[in-house]
Amino acid sequence: MDRTLIVDAKKAQAPCDDMTICGWIRTRRDCRGFSFLEVNDGSCLGNMQCLVDEGTPAHEALGQAQNGTSLKLRGALVASPGKEQQWEIHAREITIFGLADPLSYPLQKKRHSDEFLRSIAHLRARTNKYGAIFRIRSQAAFAIHNFFRQQHFAYVHTPILTGSDCEGAGEMFHVSTQGAGGQDDFFSRPCQLTVSGQLEAETLACALGRVYTFGPTFRAEDSRTPRHAAEFWMVEPEMAFADLEDLMQLAETFLKAVIGQVLEASAEDLALLDKFVAKGLLDRLRAWSSPTPYARLDYTRCIELLQKSGKKFVYPVDFGTDLQTEHERYLAEEYCASPLIITNYPRSIKPFYMRDNDDQRTVAAMDVLVPGIGEIIGGSQREERLDKLEEKMQALGDTV
């Protein structure tokens, strides 16, 4: 079908005598002598205004079609006399693909609650909010791949079905064929959904130098907080010959590049979220992608700052305790009021493979915190000294 996406039609540089669009009716307004349609095809936030004159074949084909109807519309793209849009289409032909019952179609020209939209998950992407979120997510994924490509990282695919618990990152979902007519353990041994592609990526980095994996990971943690998800997509880069400073620089450059590209490509969608969903979102994103370097603090210094803050935290603050969300948000939002990289965590609370610092009580690990969220990136320099690795594994009771 020879058609024009609405996102391209709205960017037209000149009128067009013959243009075809497809989409869904967002609103219909009937006036004396003609009907106004707002049509959206999902390619952008904005709708295309279409005018259908009464007494024409197009108006006859339109019939009583209302919100939600899918259709093809052919006509002339002309300058709009209205102030809200630059272009509109005067319809000559209309083909109805599917009607929507106006009495039961659930999306109306008003704001709907998330609770209501969960009950119509098959339609919620047609709303402005969720359409914007999905387009932004798509742009972010593209920006992630674009960044690593420019930095000469190889994109690798790591297993989703695995027998490895990685670093003990969380409870795992067990994969079973029970109830499907097969044996319980398909591979004759336990198998789980991956919590991380780290182990495979580390191996590949020792051959390819720079690799990253970007795919679904699964955590079976029994948590009801908004910060925990059973399934999410995670980016995991691995670099050979890299120290902690390299990791911090990569993390900061990565965030700024991805946010900057999304700000440019998804300006209209982000503006909608900034206005109706998350006030101040655009200002925060612009600050996080600005040339200003991120603040950096040593873990030990963070503990001192938290203890001297005068704040009453739910969780106690002492050296050797993991920072909780309330601690991270205080440091990023109140003390620094900017993105923050925390380094050199206690050895006792980190996995054995992280490289020991000279003080023998901290490791070369770092977390990136951003205001309003907390931790967004975590990483570490790997321990490359065999004797140190063997010592740590023996202390954990693992066979070397």
What does this structure look like?
With 400 residues, the protein is of the alpha+beta class. The protein contains eleven helices and 14 strands. The strands form four sheets. Strands 1-2-3-5-4 form a five-stranded mixed beta barrel. Strands 11-12-13-14 form a four-stranded mixed beta sheet. It has a three-stranded mixed beta sheet with strand order 6-9-10. The radius of gyration is 27 Å and the shape is elongated. The N and C termini lie far apart (63 Å). The relative contact order is 0.07.
Gist of the model:
The protein is 30% helix and 26% strand.
Give me some keywords for this one:
400 residues, alpha+beta, OB fold (Dihydrolipoamide Acetyltransferase, E2P), BirA Bifunctional Protein, domain 2, 3 domains, five-stranded mixed barrel, four-stranded mixed beta sheet, 11 helices, 14 strands, 26% strand, elongated
